[in-house]
Amino acid sequence: MTDTVVINGAVLEKDAESVWQAGADTLKGMTAALPSIAAPDFSIIPGGQEAAKLYVTARQALADYIDGGQSEFLAFEHLLLQTAIAYGKAHGATVEDITRMEKELES
Fold it and tell me: What are the extents of the domains in the chain?
């Protein structure tokens, strides 16, 4: 009995784009949507200046966290594309397919 593993490069490429790239794009949008609130807007509450500083710190921490997730999604996308390219080269993918995936990997 022989175990055969078949890798479908098109499925890897589609997953890289429709799941991982799309997820990274969503996270990028989330970071951009985090509201900035000007310090004067906090002046209506006691300790407004301190609250403004804390808000800026919290907003930045959340943005950094989301950006880290975006980086991880992009890294996974790149790994899938690299795998699809390597498999395609080893198993007869067309030059056009390889070139398309390599261009996507560079972007």
Answer: 9-106
Contact 85, 102 (CB under 8 A): yes
Strands (E), the chain: none
- The pTM for the full model equals 0.77
Q: In one letter, which amino acid is 12?
A: L
Is residue 51 a contact partner of residue 42, using CB atoms and an 8 Å limit?
yes
Burial bucket for residue 90 (CB in 10 Å: 0-12, 13-18, 19+): exposed
Contacts of residue 98, Cβ cutoff 8 Å, sequence gap at least 6: 85, 88, 89
d(CA 44, CA 29): 30
Q: Tell me what pLDDT residue 35 has.
A: 93
The predicted pLDDT at position 4 comes to 75
